[in-house]
Predict the 3D structure of the following.
Amino acid sequence: MTWELRTVDPALEREWIATGYWTDVSLGSLLHDGLRDNASDPFTVRSRVHPEHTTLGHVREQALTLALGLRDRGVETGDVVGFQLPNWVEAAYVFYAATFLGAVVMPIVHFYGPKEVGYILRKTPPKAFVTFDQFGALSGTRTLLESGAPMPELVAVVGDDPSGFEPLAAWFGTGPLAAPADVDVASPALIAYTSGTTSDPKGVIHTHRTIGFEVRQLGATQASKGLPPLTGAPVGHGIGMLAALLIPVVRGQAIHLIDVWDPEWILEIMSNEEVSAGAGATYFLTSLLDHPNFDPDVHLPPMRHIGLGGAAIPDAVADRATKLGISIVRMYGSTEHPSITGCVHEDPLDKRIHTDGHPLPGCEVRLAEDGEIESRGPDCFAGYTDPALTAKVFDDEGWYHTGDIGVLDDDGYLTITDRKSDVIIRGGENISAAEVESVLAHMPGILECAVVAAPDQRMGEHACAFIRGTAPPMAEVQAAMSDAGLARQKWPEEIREVTDFPRTASGKIQKFVLRRQLRDEASTP
């Protein structure tokens, strides 16, 4: 496939190459060399249904063998290889194999339903696609069959599937691919679909250069190696992908995945094995601290340095962690521009816990007149799969208009204060308010609705539905969401019945007033 990528200012390109931010190393070569150089490091999957205990070296060999098999089936450099898998070792095999071939890898979050998956596969048809048979109540094959999208040319399944698709094991070649493909590093390497301000996901394109810099940049900002983290964020999402499949390989660190975020089990693992946990979206930390089995004497030592990002970070959470002796750093970014600002543990306490950090190396930040944050840097994406969307968010100087509102203090530290869009970030996952509202609007008794972000101590934010008319019971709302094919994470977790809404002079609902009301309620003792 071909896409219309944005053009980077030649002077900026020369600067980023001269400083070493952009290199001529492909993503496949970066990962291949990291896996090879750290071959003895463990690669484990904690799972009650699909566990794995192996090494980075073995994963590399398996990925190279899968890459040869994909090539034998006609997958070439530039083709799209998609997968929808839980945090299992096969996700790593497919991800790395695709990069070794110079294919464009397209991960999809494993819990996305037929609506989301169908849209993604129609917009970006993959040459090869790998899914799973069953994982709890989820079935990747059922999702694929119910998506309504044209069937990819090649489909393989992890597990015993009755649908007639090939098992992934059949795709492995007779030996390993000799070496990663030689590719144009300015070409696409990754497409990450993220739900944003509209009801449909957006395909974010990263090149070998942009994602390569992101991996090296974010890895360099993290604390000294210490204990390797246990990653529960889905590898189909940017946070999990970076934390589990990319950064550890480059940093020379063991990879530890878990396919279900079970705080009790994770605390048990931390008690018996040398791993850390709690980084990422706020929920991954608070779920551990809130569990009755949390023992400060046992569990705090491996959690001394935690990075939070991907969702709103309530001050109460940062203050609580600090009192426990946990050093918190906050990060700000998005799938489009993954790491814009952040702190390091050596920064002043007030900056670490009450701001979203300063611009990271290579990145620039400025504020528009209305306070919107605009960013520019070597890890900023190359464009959307829809060029019309790309044109909307970039100006002629290459500044990315984030849609977020913020303030910069005198020391250059950024604090996010609001969002121009209606996106809700729950545990690092974006929820489109319009998509949820569309389902609610068709329910009997609902005259008008507005879905906004409500503060959530565990997940950062959750969806709150304000309804004018007769609010249906929560069970009926959940049934409607399920029937519409929306992933459970998008369902409203709070319903408010109102007689009317705050409005502009033109009659538009002022959602920022509703969000402010919820924030004020949450901050009131």
User: Anything to note?
Assistant: The CA atoms of residues 263 and 287 lie 6 Å apart. Residues 56-72 form the longest helix (17 residues). The mean pLDDT is 92.
